Amino acid sequence: MATDYDAPRKTEEDTEDSIEELKSHRTEKQSSSAVDIDETDLADAYELPGADLSGEELLVRVLPPQADEFTCFNCFLVKHRSQIAREKDGHLYCKECES
């Protein structure tokens, strides 16, 4: 909202509004600013965990694991072999999971 800084300010003599008038102005502002949001529009943006995505196509090209990469057994992220912190029972763990 634009404010006119050159307009004369109200003095204490001008501001003789009663408490009832101030309360009525406050409730009018609150009721007029209420926004009606349709909950079904919001729900369309969410994907549920058990949703059927069989008709969807991947837009990302998936590459097989490279020779210099490994999958951390704890966080399941693909990392460079320089990030190996330890190997236990044939499983590799990254530095972030071990710290």
From TrEMBL:
Protein's name according to its UniProt entry: DUF4193 domain-containing protein
Superkingdom of origin organism: Bacteria
Ranges for region Disordered: 1-41
Entry-linked InterPro entries: DUF4193
Biased composition regions of type Basic and acidic residues, renumbered to the chain: 1-12, 20-29
Pfam family, one: DUF4193
